[in-house]
Amino acid sequence: MNNPGRRRPLRIINSVAPIRICDNGGWTDTWFAGHGKVFNIGVYPYAEVQIEVFPYEGEDNRIVINAENYGERYALHPERTGWDRHPLLEAAIECMGVPDDMAFQVTIFSDAPAGASTGTSAAVTVALIGALDRLTPGHLTPHEVAATAHSVETDMLHLQSGIQDQLCSAYGGINYIEMFQFPHASVSQIQVPNAIWWELERRLVLIYLGKSHSSSQVHEKVIRQLEDAGPDCLQLNDLRVTAERSRDAVYAGDFVALGEAMVANTEAQGRLHPDLIGPEARRVIEIARAHNALGWKVNGAGGEGGSVTLLCGSLSYTKRAMMREIEQENPLFRSIPIYLSRYGLRVWERALEENGE
């Protein structure tokens, strides 16, 4: 595509998908767990994808990827073997089998920091697949989009990935996920009165620890241990129970019980391997405890970097004092503003000639 930014697109397809926090029961949504239970919460900032569709005029750079967060824009050549700069994006495009008779530019952006252990990669993949789905016959359900996004990571890229990130991003909201046999699962969205929803949103704080999450050797060691222990080992059962406790607490509007479930999950993570709760996360937890926070959850599988979800008490000024102390503790620590997502994946489009744009 020759300078697609200067050409008039025929269509613009937009999609957004939330990231996830507070994934109590994480690690049990994996192939080595076999079956699992996960509670998680979809939040904004979301991952955003926009596809500009152009008339195809036989140019070589028919597909262009604009990875806005990385400042990279480059042509994708599907006929070549192997991946280029962003394998996840390139594999998703290949997986969806976009027709050869159209040219397009895909722009991807998210305000969520990369490597924050909040399922940002899954949200990007869900949003991208949802948008690309508009270019192919038929429409995938949210569950099918999540399954496709998971398959891109595991089957095409051969990465370790549970299923909960993709499901939360596709469904949004507060979720209780039961994986009855990997990777098959049901998703129950937890519907609560607005007062509980608003209060939960007010109490939650997401702290980014200032550097990208790194799984590496610690995660591989934990996976080997859990694989050898079997799907019904004590370590995994301790995590599964926290998902049920979290679900029941939210339905009851019992924030003390939810905080206790978050703490129990983080402690269970630490029992898998002490390095899953890094020194930065431990310091944030110490400050949160000193400010009477009700709970804390090291997001994702844990390890170096990433982020922590905090559940605060009743008083907003205490929450703000806690956030100030955390950010003063380390110049890399920062609070990421979040809002609970009423929706999961959203996709929409319009032809530009509708309004003369």
Largest sheet, described in full? Answer: 9 strands, mixed
How far the N terminus sits from the C terminus, by CA atoms, comes to 21 Å
CATH architecture: 2-Layer Sandwich
Q: Spell out the helices and strands N to C.
A: EEEEHEHHHEEHEHHHHEEHEEE
Indicate the overall shape: globular
Number of domains: 1
Write down the Rg: 21 Å
CATH class: Alpha Beta
Number of H/I helices = 10
Which percent band covers the strand fraction? 25-35%
- List how many beta strands DSSP finds: 13
- Helical fraction equals 25-40%
Output the CATH topology: Ribosomal Protein S5, domain 2
Low-confidence region ranges = 1-5
Structural class of the helix and strand makeup? alpha+beta
Rounded average pLDDT: 93
Summarize the structure.
The protein is α+β, with helices and mostly antiparallel strands and 357 residues long. It is built from ten helices and 13 strands.
Describe this structure in words.
There is one protein chain. With 357 residues, the chain is of the alpha+beta class. It has one domain: 2-Layer Sandwich (Ribosomal Protein S5, domain 2), CATH 3.30.230.120. The strands form 2 sheets. Strands 1, 2, 3, 4, 5, 6, 7, 12 and 13 form a 9-stranded mixed β-sheet that branches. It has a 4-stranded antiparallel β-sheet with strand order 9-10-8-11. Helix 3 runs antiparallel to helix 4 and helix 7 packs antiparallel against helix 8. The longest helix has 19 residues. The chain is globular and about 65 Å long. The N terminus is likely disordered.
